[in-house]
Amino acid sequence: MNELEEIVNIQQHPINNKEYINKCKKQIQENSILILNNFLNNNCLNELIDEALQLEDKAFYCSQNHTILLNKANESNDPNDPLNTEVISDKGCVPHDLLNKDSKLNILYKLPEFKKFLIGVLNLQNIYAYSDTLSSINYNYYQKSQQLGWHFDNASFAITLMIQSSDTGGEFEYVSQGRDFSKNFIDKHYIKNILQNKILPEKIDVEAGTLVLFYGRNYLHRVTPVESTKPRILVTLNYNEEEGTMLSENARMTFFGRVN
Length: 260
Ligand SMILES: O=C(O)CCC(=O)C(=O)O
Ligand SMILES: [Fe+2]
What we know:
By secondary structure, the chain is an alpha+beta fold. The protein has helices spanning about 5, 20-30, 40-55, 105-110, 110-120, 190-195, 250-255; strands at about 35, 60-65, 85-95, 135-140, 150, 160-165, 170-180, 185, 200-205, 210-215, 220-225, 230-235. Bound molecules: 2-oxoglutaric acid and fe (ii) ion (FE2).
């Protein structure tokens, strides 16, 4: 078995095959999200569950109020403006430097076949790791009552791997409209309806071992509060389109509790 087969369920997801890459690309362009169930092979998933549970007590927990554009609300601005409405996000995070050196996540993250797949599906020139030691690969833990409030990401695309889903709650919800970052367009009326639950979002129930790719900068999304004592554990695989990018010190302090 080569490294790719040790990690990816290659029978179901032949990510090194050009036709499969094109099929996935078409899917994300049509649906704004790509959900690949059973992406990890079973042995790999079990190894990552063990690693996630072994690292859980090292997670740094943060809770923040923020607007959907990830800013602080401005008290002098209209509190009814959906861009000035605060939501809550709270979760735990284990940064990259605490992962086992030989973690399958480190291997997958750097694997040329996987990078080629991502570049092809997301239609990018190239992708690069963060140049700080914390931000490239993160385990995220959502304990009972923890959630991620409605937001648009700063990064144009997001890549997540579900390690353990919660029994109840902790669902990923999204809408595939509301913003066009490249045109500096934001549909406040539509977003307000989502925040006030007048329009119901799409909802996906993601099982362990699933890879999800989505354009988080244009599509409003959230994770609903976890209701079970079993936490939701998910990995974010974070890449940049430019080489040498660091996450800001401010963001590292917020999410990891340290800058290096
Ligand atoms: O946990 C998820 O499924 C989504 C994570 C997310 O939206 C984020 O980290 O910005
Ligand atoms: Fe997000």
